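hiii, so i know i said id send this last week but things got crazy w the move. better late than never?? heres the sequnce for the chain we talked about at the cafe, plus the structure i predicted for it. fair warning i was half asleep when i ran it
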Amino acid sequence: MNPQKKFHLVFSLVMGAMMIFIMTFVITTVNVGWSAQFLGLWMKAFAIAYVVGVPVIFFLAPVARQLTGRLLGVAP
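okay and structure toks below
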C-alpha cells in the first residue's frame, strides 16, 4: 500500500473514532440520560456507528476536500 493511501486509511480510522466517540456519547446521553444502562447502550451505538462511519469517512473525505476547494476557489 502506498504511503498516501495508508495515510488516508489511518486518518479515516482515527477521525472516525474521535467523531463517533463524541457523537454517540452526546446522542446516547440525550436519549437515555445517566442511567444504569448508559455505558452498554453507548458502546453498542459506538460499535455500530464506527462500522458505518469509517467507510463513509474513507470514501467521502476526498469528495469533501474537492467540494471545499471549489467553494473557496483553492486547490485541495
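btw Helices lie at 3-32, 38-72. thought thatd interest u
miss u guys!!
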